[in-house]
Predict the 3D structure of the following.
Amino acid sequence: MKKALVVGASGGMGYALVNELAARDIQVVAFARTKEKLVALFQHQPNVTIYTGDVFNEEQLRKASHGVDVIFHAISFPYQEWEAKHIRCLTIIIRAAQAQQAKIALVDNIYAYGRQSTNIVTENARKNPHTKKGKIRLAMENMLKESSIPSLIVHMPDLYGPNAENTILHETLKSVIRDKKANYVGNMQVAREFLYTFDGAKAMVELALRSDTYHQHWHVSAVHTITGAQLVTILRDITGYKRDVRTVSKAMISMLAIFSPFMKEMKEMMYLTEEPVILSGEKYEKAIGPLPQTSYKEGLQETLLWLKKREQQHAMA
């Protein structure tokens, strides 16, 4: 891989992927809608070309993908827009890849698995999504499989990291930085996975660089599972944060859903805070080697530092 396109480069995983690709001396086209954000994120990166465009404008996406070997699909949409946009978006990306004879690497989540009876889920687990969003993700996977495009489907758990603002954990972290009462979505005593975005990007780029990894599903698991209570303890240790952390329960989400389209969509995914899908990274480690595993303390420190700088920049603007 000499050149790659990252669609959704201004998001959390997109940002991490661009940085990882550029660090490996791969030429990267960073594609997103907002030029100002792309410039702020990547203006000092020598291997990065900024391309502002609309993923639904097929001509713009084809121009951005000119000469690339792999298209990294890291774009997502607000929950309430999934049904209208995700399949349409992937259709256009597939056509762009066909025109360039490029491969596709899809950043995927765990929604398509639905409820699972086993504690640790492997790539061989049967996918039986019971939610609308899980069914959309499974339809995306099937589209890629049915296309002629060599593709990687990389499943990751909930994310956190620098610039990862559209994540469930970001809602907690931004309040910690502002020294305000924080919310934690889900049961504080249930152990779940949170993956540091830069670990996910390292593993995904490693997969994309190989020829024998395509036409497959891969899991990138977190360093280990962790409860909300344990996360809060780490955050207090790092920052000295002393405010209360409030649990946002399914009942609270249900009440807010009456007034908020996003919360209405969030409600169906709350089962994952009680019955988490925990990914096995065994396949990756057997085929590639040890997964990148940043400790929660280090990952949270880096994320909080990025958030603090962001808050300072906004204050100065």
Summary: The longest helix spans residues 296-316. The chain has twelve helices and 13 strands. The chain has a mean pLDDT of 94.
